[in-house]
Amino acid sequence: MSAVHPSRKAYVEDADEEMLDLASVPIDRDYAIPSTARAGIAPEKASAIIEQMDRKKKAAAIIVPTDDGRVRTRLRELGEPVTLFGEGPADRRDRLRELLYLRQEGLDADAMDLDMRDTSATPAAEEAEDEEEFYTPGEPELLEARKEIAKYSLPRAKERIQHQIANHKIPLQKHIKHRRALKEDLAKFEILGSQIAGERPMSLARFSPDGNLIAAGNWSGTMRLLSTPKLEEKKVFRGHTDRVGGISWHPSSTTSLSEDLANLASGGAEGNIHLWSLTNDKPISTLSGHSGRVARVEYHPCGKYLASASFDTTWRLWDLETQKELLLQEGHSREVYTVAFQGDGALIASGGYDSIGRVWDIRTGRTIMILDGHIREITGLSWHPDGYRVASSSGDASVKIWDVRMVQCVATIGAHKNLVSDVRFFNGPRSAVGELNTSGTYFVTSGFDDEARIYSSDDWAFVKSLGAHTGKVSSVDVSLDGRYIVTSGHDRTVKLWAREDIEL
């Protein structure tokens, strides 16, 4: 005879032939919801979910202001954050409504969050929990660095926003005329010069801040300094024992920084990061810690910190004054290939061979957005000067534009016929308040289809193809004054591009 659940015995054994009254109906409060049971959700957690749905239903009946300003004022009165990251007016009203309901019922919001924890997790659930984000304690030096980065970034963000507000007051027709003229100028870019810069394929080329020098690294482990526009070899740096990956110039290099100090950084496939002066062909310092190839390095806008992306599946943050590793950041399941700082210095984006990008708030250490959409590896990242858009290039032949405010991808561009190896927004000096700005109006890409390309940032439209390499193009960059574009390729050359009417 099969066993009968206790809650069912009343119907089988104890029930009279006559109809039962309501008080005699047995109640089972430990029932399992079939859909949640099949999904591996414990009954306790399923009950908590139902309770939360009931709370939301009751909260919906609470009247809250429709004016967003009044909603913010009410949240401030309750001692709650006025706004959360990525939160819109409708989300803010819903949050206020739920907070008012919890206070009305005498409940604590934090306690409600605790109720949703699964206290009887199955092995499958425990395995899923292992994949969730986790945070590890940091050193006091990291805390101080986060505070310093916050102090640095907040005034810059305020200034940027004020400039954007003023720029929006310029008449639309003036903007259109300016952008049309800019596209015509971009279409005039032609090859200006070419130079063999290594014994093996080139991996990367980057302009100095003043645009007068190009640092170009290759697979043999050497890095050369070339002058613009003649591409004359000025110096050869030797220090890496394997291919050079990342190259990054100090933000003040070639402008106000002494040539005897560390002016640029490079990463190598042997796992080391070298810091170089402009007067010595040997590294003046080496940062060690990565257990895999260093694919990219990037200076923080303040110049005191350096980020590095590595094939050991981590990216790291270094203090250049103490030459200590401040942060070892996990979060990618495969090799991390690229990192890029936002212009304000508050955020950093990382991407790699897991096809996933992440945007991190360096001030808190939290992931604020996941760039999930590419179907192959992410090879490059570049922030728009507006501070809230970031471009990613990928092996799937596309470039995606991500909006951090909207927390979503806003554009996908079929940029090349093959892998897109690099992407760079034009990040020039900011114009005076009320004047038309050129910075951020276009971006450039390089690809394994032997071309580099220019795209408009207005409508993401193709503008110009730069085709002169006889092999895969590995990198591309734009000088800060917008006069030059540089490309490097597997044909061992560095090529310089400029408008045909430019005055040299």
UniProtKB/TrEMBL annotation:
<dbReference type="InterPro" id="IPR015943">
    <property type="entry name" value="WD40/YVTN_repeat-like_dom_sf"/>
</dbReference>
<feature type="domain" description="Pre-mRNA processing factor 4 (PRP4)-like">
    <location>
        <begin position="66"/>
        <end position="118"/>
    </location>
</feature>
<dbReference type="Pfam" id="PF00400">
    <property type="entry name" value="WD40"/>
</dbReference>
<feature type="repeat" description="WD">
    <location>
        <begin position="287"/>
        <end position="328"/>
    </location>
</feature>
<dbReference type="InterPro" id="IPR036322">
    <property type="entry name" value="WD40_repeat_dom_sf"/>
</dbReference>
<protein>
    <submittedName>
        <fullName>WD40 repeat-like protein</fullName>
    </submittedName>
</protein>
<dbReference type="InterPro" id="IPR020472">
    <property type="entry name" value="WD40_PAC1"/>
</dbReference>
<dbReference type="InterPro" id="IPR019775">
    <property type="entry name" value="WD40_repeat_CS"/>
</dbReference>
<dbReference type="GO" id="GO:0017070">
    <property type="term" value="F:U6 snRNA binding"/>
</dbReference>
<dbReference type="GO" id="GO:0000398">
    <property type="term" value="P:mRNA splicing, via spliceosome"/>
</dbReference>
<feature type="repeat" description="WD">
    <location>
        <begin position="371"/>
        <end position="412"/>
    </location>
</feature>
<feature type="repeat" description="WD">
    <location>
        <begin position="466"/>
        <end position="504"/>
    </location>
</feature>
<dbReference type="GO" id="GO:0046540">
    <property type="term" value="C:U4/U6 x U5 tri-snRNP complex"/>
</dbReference>
<dbReference type="Pfam" id="PF08799">
    <property type="entry name" value="PRP4"/>
</dbReference>
<feature type="repeat" description="WD">
    <location>
        <begin position="329"/>
        <end position="370"/>
    </location>
</feature>
<keyword id="KW-0853">WD repeat</keyword>
<dbReference type="InterPro" id="IPR001680">
    <property type="entry name" value="WD40_rpt"/>
</dbReference>
<keyword id="KW-0677">Repeat</keyword>
<dbReference type="InterPro" id="IPR014906">
    <property type="entry name" value="PRP4-like"/>
</dbReference>
<feature type="repeat" description="WD">
    <location>
        <begin position="237"/>
        <end position="286"/>
    </location>
</feature>
<dbReference type="InterPro" id="IPR036285">
    <property type="entry name" value="PRP4-like_sf"/>
</dbReference>
<dbReference type="GO" id="GO:0030621">
    <property type="term" value="F:U4 snRNA binding"/>
</dbReference>
